[in-house]
Amino acid sequence: MHAPPALPPGSAPTAPPERCPLCGGPNGCAMAAGQPPESCWCMQATLDPAALARIPAADRGLRCVCAACGQAQSAGAAAPG
Predict the structure, then answer these.
(1) How far is 31 from 42, CA to CA, in rounded Å?
(2) What is the CA radius of gyration of the chain?
(3) How far is it, in rounded angstroms, from Cα 27 to Cα 20?
(4) Which of 27, 69, 71, 81 lies at a C-alpha separation of 20 to 30 Å from 16?
């Protein structure tokens, strides 16, 4: 299960939790939609660690990346150049 970490006082996400912090598009997050965490697409996916590292500090643990951003590096690395 994913549980958001405690934030320092004065911290807040930079946008709504249903938006991807990398591209700003809808992230399809089940928890942001009020559904159980285990129903989220990310529970069945392998997310690219480089994509997760690009999430702004204020959004970490509060906003999920979308599937395209979460897997973009891996897909890009496999594509012929």
Answers:
(1) 11
(2) 13
(3) 5
(4) 71
Could you tell me the mean pLDDT of each successive run of 10 residues in the chain, 81 residues long? 46 78 94 92 91 92 91 50 36
- Give the global pTM: 0.69
Q: CB under 8 Å to 16, separation ≥6 — which residues?
A: 32, 63
What's the CA gap between 27 and 10, in Å, rounded? 25
Contact predicate 24/15, CB 8 Å? yes
Pick from 31, 51, 48, 47: nearest CA to 39:
31
